[in-house]
């Protein structure tokens, strides 16, 4: 066998070995991936404590209750003013000379 033939034979064997090594490496990587536990999902950053949100909810509720009571007070005032104007108009019609 000449040196050229021996080199060609060695090259073919090396190529086969490198393919086998690549296959073995891929199998080992797949095994490692299947054996690793899944990474936990990163926790969402905390934007505040629960007490903060409870305080915001209570504050918002008090604000809305205040607005509702003010709206009722305005409605009662308008109704009272309207009745007062109608009564005064009626009295004025009776007092006014014809």
Q: What does the radius of gyration come to? A: 45 Å
User: Which structural class do you get from the secondary structure elements?
Assistant: mainly alpha
Oligomeric state of the chains? Answer: single chain
SSE ordering? HH
Distance between the termini: 145 Å
Share in β-strands: under 5%
- Proportion of residues in helical segments: over 70%
Biggest sheet, in brief?
none
Features:
0% strand; 98 residues; 81% helix
Quick overview:
With about 100 residues, this protein is mostly helical.
Q: Could you explain the architecture of this structure?
A:
The structure is a single chain. With 98 residues, the chain is mostly helical. Helices cover 81% and strands 0% of the residues. The protein has helices spanning 3-35, 50-95. The chain is rod-shaped, with a radius of gyration of 45 Å. The termini are far apart.
Provide the fold topology:
Elements: H1 3-35, H2 50-95
